[in-house]
Design goal:
Its cofactor is [4Fe-4S] cluster; Mo-bis(molybdopterin guanine dinucleotide). Belongs to the prokaryotic molybdopterin-containing oxidoreductase family. NasA/NapA/NarB subfamily. The protein is α/β, with parallel strands linked by helices. It has four domains: about 1-50, Phosphorylase Kinase, domain 1 (2-Layer Sandwich), CATH 3.30.200; about 65-125 and about 340-435 and about 470-490, 3-Layer(aba) Sandwich (Rossmann fold), CATH 3.40.50.740; about 130-325, Dimethylsulfoxide Reductase, domain 2 (3-Layer(aba) Sandwich), CATH 3.40.228; about 575-690, Barwin-like endoglucanases. It has 23 helices and 26 strands. The strands form six sheets. The chain has a seven-stranded mixed beta sheet, with helices on both faces. α3 packs parallel to α20 (about 470-480), α4 (about 130-140) packs across α14 (about 295-310) and α8 packs antiparallel against α11 (about 255-265). The radius of gyration is 24 Å and the shape is globular. Bound molecules: iron/sulfur cluster. Iron/sulfur cluster binds next to α1 and α7.
Length: about 700
């Protein structure tokens, strides 16, 4: 018997896991007591990880149009199709769609191949659906995509404002830490801002049940209130920020009456929140998909960040605007340029940065401008402009909005490659080639969680069938394209060293992301690597923003003028989508564990008690929700936490699990103009009897 430490593959908490091994099998998992994210805790999904291993439902061999083929045949075909498409139709006709489930090393080589050697920046990721609005907002405010908080701050804050986050279900270990911290410090206050009353509200001193999409009014009004009450930190503003005047001018008309009207809150609830925020130095605002998944998500994030910058509540223990990511490695993907508008090591498509990355890679065909973001990428495929698409570790036929458009895109592409662990997904069903990928417990690499902690995921058991890591597939295709010398890695440690070295290359403090101190790790040191928060570089403090230095051209943070706007009024019901407590994404892993389905084993359509009465609906009755994009059926759940006029449906179901299909079929492909993040939490739907 032996133990091996690794990291949970689900949410952005990034809990350390200690796996107990016996004769090549994982017989149990428990929380890693030494990991900074969880200190031994795990949620129910994490404790069930051992039950997700095994061959059942796994894709075991490469397959072309349903026929098993050898790895050589599969990789030769992928390389030939990639080369042929690019030669005939140009770099804009090829695209990779990646995933926050990939390890950083997988992500790094996929980006390097496309952006450095195939001349295309059409590399985007399902992380676009998760937190790209937070990224865009951080870049506007701080000059770089950097998260200025840690989970310790969430604990040490005296006021914790949770916005658009049902952490009790979606980031359970963070929620457990909050509950424990509140028990230890009864003066700690928790405010939840959410259109629904969720399980997270059980820990709240105050719940602001706002109207859908009104978050920016709440925080624009807060900035106006803080200024009017002389509660701004003038010294901090003067020394470390720019743009206050314009930011205040933008919110000057957002008075109390405006906010009450937009949010639907009562005067007493709003006043209490504004007073608590104004009075509490140690305030952390923690926000998630309820903010990000909106066509105005970036502005909402900046409205929050403005309040922290103007009060100097940032860069100090227990203070800051903290975006928590949905996926285990959304952050690692951001670090290697996994978004179509970024280059590796947090560099952009500015000429000097394109040149720097090209020189570091000795790139033969460097992309010089941003590629297509997720929704635009699939729309381009549906329009016949993208002809070769390689999808890694994700299921866009379920998760992207307007799934009919996504399925049409997959049908129209000349060649679709899907590399995945799972044999049967809505996306794999439409692929020309499927490649078996090694999954959690089988592959080696690193992930970065929401608080910038880099942790190792370690191989615990032999890969199922012929499954191989994604980085290996990419490098094998690169070799077949004649690029082997640039992709000559003998394992993930070699890729990690190169990634770390690039982060430090010509980085004289102008970029926060710097892990150059890890660029010399040996294979043995990489194997043993303990969780570490970046930056990790000689002479660089890991306490980002503590000195008030930002990564903009002037070194000062930018307050962004935000003019809030509400979503259009709905004709019928406002659809909200989200996660259930015990499931993950499209259930390809958690769906294999019977005990995780006990919480809810059916596709539910949540309605308020009054709406149920008005429509004469009973709990458990079959019902449909529909709009011009389609119709999805499920079983009624009467949810007292829902406001009248709102409907909630989980994101997990797909063709694979239900004939009803995915709820994203009804979500329009509307995106935020800055981030490209889809508006997955708001659609107009009608409730129909079936
Ligand atoms: Fe895994 Fe997230 Fe649960 Fe931690 S909180 S065990 S990372 S799913």
């Amino acid at each position: 018997m032996s133990f091996c430490n690794t990291t949970c593959p689900y949410c952005g908490v990034g809990c350390g896991v200690s796996a107990e091994l016996d004769q090549g099998n994982v017989i149990a998992v428990m929380g890693d007591g030494n990991h900074p994210a969880n200190a031994g805790r795990l949620c129910v999904k994490g404790t069930a990880l051992a039950e997700t291993l095994g061959d059942e439902g796994r894709l075991l061999h490469p397959r072309a149009k349903g026929q098993t083929v050898s790895w050589d045949e599969a990789l030769d075909t992928v390389a030939a199709k990639l080369r042929d498409t690019r030669d005939r139709h140009g770099p804009g006709s090829i695209a990779f769609y990646l995933s926050g489930q990939l390890l950083t090393e997988d992500y790094y080589v996929a980006n390097k191949l496309m952006k450095g050697f195939l001349g295309s920046a059409n590399v985007d990721t399902n992380s676009r659906l998760c937190m790209s609005s937070a990224v865009a907002a951080y870049k506007r405010a701080f000059g770089e995509d950097l998260v200025p908080c840690s989970y310790d701050d969430v604990e040490s804050a005296e006021l914790l404002v949770m916005v658009g986050s049902n952490a009790a279900w979606t980031h359970p270990v963070v929620y457990q830490r909050i509950v424990a911290a509140k028990r230890a410090n009864p003066n700690k206050r928790v405010v939840v801002v959410d259109t629904r009353r969720t399980a997270t509200c059980d820990a709240a001193d105050l719940h602001l049940q706002i109207q859908p999409g009104s978050d920016a009014f709440l925080f624009a009004g807060l900035l106006n209130h803080l200024a009017g009450s002389r509660l701004l930190d003038d010294a901090y503003i003067e020394r470390h920020t720019e743009g206050l005047e314009a930011a205040l001018a933008a919110v000057a008309g957002i008075d109390r009456a405006h906010v009450l009207s937009a949010t639907g809150l009562s005067e007493s609830v709003l006043s209490t929140f504004y007073q608590w925020f104004g009075d509490t130095e140690k305030t952390v605002t923690l926000y998630s998909q309820g903010i990000n998944q909106s066509s105005t998500g970036t502005d909402k994030c900046n409205a929050i960040i403005n309040c922290h910058l103007a009060t100097g509540r940032i860069g100090k223990p227990g203070a800051g605007p903290f975006s928590i990511t949905g996926q285990p490695n959304a952050m690692g993907g951001r670090e290697v340029g996994g978004l179509a508008n970024q280059l590796a090591a947090h560099m952009d498509f500015a000429d000097d940065e394109v040149d720097r990355v090209a020189r570091f890679w000795n790139a033969s065909d460097m992309a010089s401008s941003p590629g297509l973001k997720a929704v635009d990428m699939f729309q381009a495929a549906a329009d016949g402009k993208i002809r070769f698409l390689w999808i890694m570790a994700t299921n866009p036929a379920v998760s992207l909005p307007d799934t009919a458009m996504v399925k049409a895109a997959l049908e129209r592409c000349d060649f679709v490659v899907v590399s995945d662990c799972t044999e049967d997904t809505d996306t794999a069903r439409r692929a020309d080639m499927v490649l078996p990928a090694a999954g959690w417990g089988e592959k080696d690499g690193t992930v970065t969680n929401s608080e910038r902690v880099i942790s190792r995921q370690r191989s615990l058991v032999a890969a199922a069938g012929e499954a191989r890591p994604d980085w290996w597939m990419v490098t094998e295709v690169a070799r077949r394209l004649g690029l082997g010398a640039h992709f000559d890695y003998d394992g993930p440690a070699a890729i990690f060293r190169e990634h770390a070295a690039l982060s430090a290359f010509e980085n004289n403090g102008q970029r926060a992301f710097n892990i150059g101190g890890l660029s010399g790790v040996s294979d043995a040191e990489y194997r043993r690597l303990a969780p570490v928060r970046w930056p990790v570089a000689p002479g660089v403090s890991s306490e980002l923003l503590a000195d008030g230095h930002y990564f903009t051209r002037t070194g000062k943070a930018q307050l962004v003028p935000i003019v809030p706007r509400l979503p259009p009024a709905v004709e019928h019901h406002a659809l909200n989508t989200g996660r259930l407590r015990d499931q993950w994404h499209t259930m390809t892993r958690t769906g294999r564990v019977p005990r995780l389905s006990r919480h809810r084993d059916f596709f539910s359509i949540g309605v308020s008690p009054a709406d149920a009465r008005a429509a004469q609906l009973e709990e458990g009755e079959l019902v449909a929700v529909a709009n011009t994009q389609g119709q999805v059926t499920g079983l009624v759940t009467i949810d007292e936490g829902l406001a009248d006029g709102q409907v909630f449906a989980p994101i997990h179901w797909s063709e694979q699990f239900s004939s009803a299909g995915a709820i994203s079929a009804l979500v329009p492909a509307l995106t935020d103009p800055h981030s490209g993040q889809p508006q997955s939490k708001f659609a107009d739907v009608q409730i129909l009897a079936v």
